[in-house]
Design brief:
It is a single chain. The protein is an alpha+beta fold. It is built from two helices and ten strands; from the N terminus they run H-E-E-E-E-E-E-E-E-E-E-H. Strands 1, 2, 3, 4, 5, 6, 7, 8, 9 and 10 form a ten-stranded antiparallel beta sheet that branches. Strand 1 and strand 2 form a beta hairpin.
Amino acid sequence: FAKFAVLGAVLAASAPFASATPITGQVSLIGPNSYTATNITFGVGNSMIAGAITGTSFTPFFTDGQIVTMTNFAIDGSFVPTTVFSVTENSVTLTYFLQTLTTTFSNAGISGGFPGDLTLIGTGFFTETGFSDTAATFNLTSQVGQNAGTGVTFSETSFAPAPTVPEPSSIALLGSGLVGAALFMRRKLMA
């Protein structure tokens, strides 16, 4: 009876995960922005889906040229996890929540105090109506152009699912749990 109770508990706990549909594919955005060494500000009402739209989670619902709502955020050490973009089309809402951020600047021949071209790389997750939240990567580039980061364009692509690499500590924890369960079962069978 104890074996069936444990098995039932495991199956009950995993049931929500078994029926969830992850988000797969990629979506690309373009639009105007301004940035400094500390912040990025997006042009209101001008950012849109453009370029790559792939995957069964995106292509049936979203189209090239659909306006996207962007959120301004800090790009330096004061970055706080935030929803970067949201779009609703065909009664489906897609959002991207950025959890981690790496910022790089290239000089791009700009002299003076301005940092140069901007590259943002991060990790987070997509949420989409009818799908389970799914880990995704975030890549944004913006060029200084002639305006030292003011009123220039950005291009951004997010990919889901993000590649996952198990942490060694997680593998060790799983292994020790399995060994413990095996020893417990052996002990029960021997008694």
